[in-house]
């Protein structure tokens, strides 16, 4: 009996270690900021796609939702649908995903357009592709399945991918919390602005706010900045300087 108990205890310990190793490996293969977006082929409500190559030269927002015909997801899709022209003007392609089938997607999107009137939004037609992922292959590829939250539904993930196919920002939300789409747009505008002007952006930045210039790389540059009389440059200390960048200048380069 004692030997049997020891054996079961040993087996349990080995099993737990193997599970830990598997989970660690899954985390390691999840795509990260600065890496190329993993490629895949998929069936969508707009036909078959090769991702991300079909959208080369564009920014992409790839986002997942837990399930069709659910209230939080419906509110999100209506908001994204209403704002889709704003993202299009920023040279950005929206691509949605859930682990539901194609016919479920089609029926849900038709219901949204024909029946739902929410916060003044109605007759919202979703024209961007929504990926069928009943195998969960794409969701797993992008780390959208988080077992601690759900092992059968994707969490609310958002991937920002630049025109070169590089992941630039990742957001995750739990099943119970809808996303802030103004923030999603702000992030996209911020990424484009940082690239266009070679600057960084402070907390709560909006177009027209001051931007952060690169930190001084030498004592000479630091001294020069602190003693500068440039009215467009403001230094709080040698490592923290901002400059003015007009809203018009920012908007003139968005989507380029």
Automatic annotation (TrEMBL):
<dbReference type="InterPro" id="IPR036249">
    <property type="entry name" value="Thioredoxin-like_sf"/>
</dbReference>
<dbReference type="InterPro" id="IPR050217">
    <property type="entry name" value="Peroxiredoxin"/>
</dbReference>
<dbReference type="Pfam" id="PF10417">
    <property type="entry name" value="1-cysPrx_C"/>
</dbReference>
<feature type="active site" description="Cysteine sulfenic acid (-SOH) intermediate">
    <location>
        <position position="73"/>
    </location>
</feature>
<dbReference type="GO" id="GO:0033554">
    <property type="term" value="P:cellular response to stress"/>
</dbReference>
<feature type="domain" description="Thioredoxin">
    <location>
        <begin position="31"/>
        <end position="193"/>
    </location>
</feature>
<comment type="similarity">
    <text>Belongs to the peroxiredoxin family. AhpC/Prx1 subfamily.</text>
</comment>
<dbReference type="GO" id="GO:0008379">
    <property type="term" value="F:thioredoxin peroxidase activity"/>
</dbReference>
<dbReference type="InterPro" id="IPR019479">
    <property type="entry name" value="Peroxiredoxin_C"/>
</dbReference>
<comment type="similarity">
    <text>Belongs to the peroxiredoxin family. Prx6 subfamily.</text>
</comment>
<keyword id="KW-1015">Disulfide bond</keyword>
<dbReference type="GO" id="GO:0045454">
    <property type="term" value="P:cell redox homeostasis"/>
</dbReference>
<feature type="binding site">
    <location>
        <position position="156"/>
    </location>
    <ligand>
        <name>substrate</name>
    </ligand>
</feature>
<comment type="subunit">
    <text>Homodecamer. Pentamer of dimers that assemble into a ring structure.</text>
</comment>
<keyword id="KW-0049">Antioxidant</keyword>
<keyword id="KW-0676">Redox-active center</keyword>
<dbReference type="InterPro" id="IPR045020">
    <property type="entry name" value="PRX_1cys"/>
</dbReference>
<keyword id="KW-0560">Oxidoreductase</keyword>
<dbReference type="InterPro" id="IPR013766">
    <property type="entry name" value="Thioredoxin_domain"/>
</dbReference>
<comment type="function">
    <text>Thiol-specific peroxidase that catalyzes the reduction of hydrogen peroxide and organic hydroperoxides to water and alcohols, respectively. Plays a role in cell protection against oxidative stress by detoxifying peroxides.</text>
</comment>
<dbReference type="InterPro" id="IPR022915">
    <property type="entry name" value="Peroxiredoxin_TDXH"/>
</dbReference>
<dbReference type="Pfam" id="PF00578">
    <property type="entry name" value="AhpC-TSA"/>
</dbReference>
<dbReference type="InterPro" id="IPR000866">
    <property type="entry name" value="AhpC/TSA"/>
</dbReference>
<feature type="disulfide bond" description="Alternate">
    <location>
        <begin position="235"/>
        <end position="241"/>
    </location>
</feature>
<dbReference type="GO" id="GO:0005829">
    <property type="term" value="C:cytosol"/>
</dbReference>
<dbReference type="GO" id="GO:0006979">
    <property type="term" value="P:response to oxidative stress"/>
</dbReference>
<protein>
    <recommendedName>
        <fullName>Peroxiredoxin</fullName>
        <ecNumber>1.11.1.24</ecNumber>
    </recommendedName>
</protein>
<dbReference type="GO" id="GO:0042744">
    <property type="term" value="P:hydrogen peroxide catabolic process"/>
</dbReference>
<keyword id="KW-0963">Cytoplasm</keyword>
<keyword id="KW-0575">Peroxidase</keyword>
């Amino acid at each position: 009996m004692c030997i049997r108990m020891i054996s079961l205890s040993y087996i349990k310990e080995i099993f737990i270690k193997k599970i830990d190793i598997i989970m660690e490996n899954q985390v390691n293969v999840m795509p990260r900021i600065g890496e190329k977006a993993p490629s895949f082929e998929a069936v969508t409500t707009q036909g078959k796609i090769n991702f991300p190559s079909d959208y080369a030269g564009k920014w992409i927002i790839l986002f997942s939702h837990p399930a069709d015909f659910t209230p939080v997801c419906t509110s999100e899709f209506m908001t994204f649908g209403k704002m889709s022209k704003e993202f299009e003007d920023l040279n950005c392609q929206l691509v949605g995903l859930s682990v539901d089938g194609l016919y479920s997607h089609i029926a849900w999107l038709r219901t949204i357009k024909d029946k739902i009137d929410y916060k003044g939004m109605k007759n919202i037609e979703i024209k961007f592709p929504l990926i069928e992922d009943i195998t969960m292959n794409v969701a797993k590829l992008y780390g959208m399945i988080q077992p601690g939250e759900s092992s059968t539904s994707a969490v609310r993930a958002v991937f920002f991918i630049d025109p070169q196919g590089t992941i630039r920002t990742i957001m995750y939300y739990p099943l119970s919390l809808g996303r802030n789409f103004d923030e999603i747009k702000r992030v996209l505008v911020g990424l484009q602005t940082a690239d266009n002007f070679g600057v960084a952006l402070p907390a709560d930045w909006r177009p027209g706010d001051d931007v952060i210039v690169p930190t001084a790389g030498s004592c000479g540059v630091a001294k020069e900045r602190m003693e500068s009389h440039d009215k467009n440059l403001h230094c709080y200390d040698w490592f923290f300087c901002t400059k003015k960048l007009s809203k018009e200048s920012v908007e003139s380069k968005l989507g380029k």
